[in-house]
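Support reply, case 0932

Customer input (verbatim):
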Amino acid sequence: MLHSNYLAHVTLIAIALLISGCASKLTSAGSKTRQIERSWMNQCKYIGSSHTSSSFKFGGDANYQSVKVDIRNITGANGGNAYVVNDFTSDGSGHYQSSFEMYKCPNNRALLIQNVDSKPAKSNTSNRYDDLERVKSLYDKGVINEEEYKIEKSKILNKK
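Our regenerated output:
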């Protein structure tokens, strides 16, 4: 009895290690991609659409992260630097799938600046806080990277 329990535990550990080793890794091209808001699509060149799904029927968060990484890698491999997710679904047992559109945008910073600067004029202080909040939200969503966030934050704080 002890021997069969030991084998069951070793088997489960081996399966877990196998699954974790199969997780998608972000490629160099994939690391240069960002999810954009649907309203920004008209400022970008459409490349195409694609879909991806997790490899395993179980795995929960690892599968979720793997599909997110796959979206970025596929977009980068196709020459894109931005993507819009059309759907992202789960079957409830940890298997995820997504369809998405790939775009080549001038650059994320230009889109960000245009979006922030196109807001209606308000008092300088409240406008600055709104802009900081918007930039932080974009950073938190992964639309812009940390370097872009710091640059935009500095620009907003230095506005007079």
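We compared this against your earlier run and they match. Two observations from our side: The longest strand covers residues 45-53. Residues 27-104 form a domain with the Dodecin subunit-like fold (CATH 3.30.1660.10). Please reopen the case if you see a mismatch on your end.
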